[in-house]
Each structure stands twice: as structure tokens, then as C-alpha cells.
Amino acid sequence: MSDQSAQNDIRDRGDRSVEQWFICKRDTGICEIIKADNKESIANSVETWGGFASQGEAIAKRIGLIRAGKCQPL
């Protein structure tokens, strides 16, 4: 998902009370799990995946991204 589409996704879901979680890849290659309300952090990422309905779902995806070599572990 591109940065712009992640931002649009956050705005589209902004009026819902459900939490959304995103995986944001930094320029260091490390991927962080970020709550959707932290829009600035999401916008400053190199690559973004999500939004996920739960933090656990985002963690599972991040593990898959690490195993696939797309993200570095912390």
C-alpha cells in the first residue's frame, strides 16, 4: 500500500470507532506497528501495510514480512 493510499484509508475509516493498525517500514528497514491515529508516523514511512483490525493481526503480518525479508526485526 502506498503512503497516499494509507492516508486515504485512515481518513475513510476516521469516523468509525474501531481501532486500525498499520505496519510502517522506516528507512532503516525496521517495521513498526502503529495505531491509525498516529497519522504523522504513518505518513513518514517508506512503505506501509494495513489497516488491520487488531494489533495481533498486525503482529502476525509483521512476522510474515520479516520472514519474507521485507522488514528487519527490532
Account of the 3D structure:
With 74 residues, this protein is α+β, with helices and mostly antiparallel strands. The protein has a domain of 48 residues. The protein contains 3 helices and 3 strands, in the order H-E-E-H-E-H. The chain has a 3-stranded antiparallel beta sheet with strand order 2-1-3, sandwiched between helices. Strand 1 and strand 2 form a beta hairpin. It is flat. This is DDE transposase family protein. It comes from Pseudanabaena biceps PCC 7429.
Number of DSSP E strands: 3
Helix-strand sequence: HEEHEH
Poorly predicted ranges? none
> Can you list the strand order of the major beta sheet?
2-1-3
* Inertia-based shape: flat
Arithmetic mean pLDDT? 85
Helix content: 25-40%
Largest sheet: 3 strands, antiparallel
Rg from Cα: 11 Å
Content of β-strand? 15-25%
End-to-end Cα distance, whole Å, is 22 Å
Protein name: DDE transposase family protein
Summarize the structure.
The chain is an alpha+beta fold. The chain has helices spanning 3-13, 39-43, 55-67; strands at 21-25, 31-35, 47-52. The chain has a domain at 21-68.
How are the elements arranged and paired?
Layout: H1 3-13, E1 21-25, E2 31-35, H2 39-43, E3 47-52, H3 55-67
Antiparallel strand pairs: 1-2, 1-3
Protein name: DDE transposase family protein
Keywords for this entry:
single chain, 3-stranded antiparallel β-sheet, 74 residues, alpha+beta
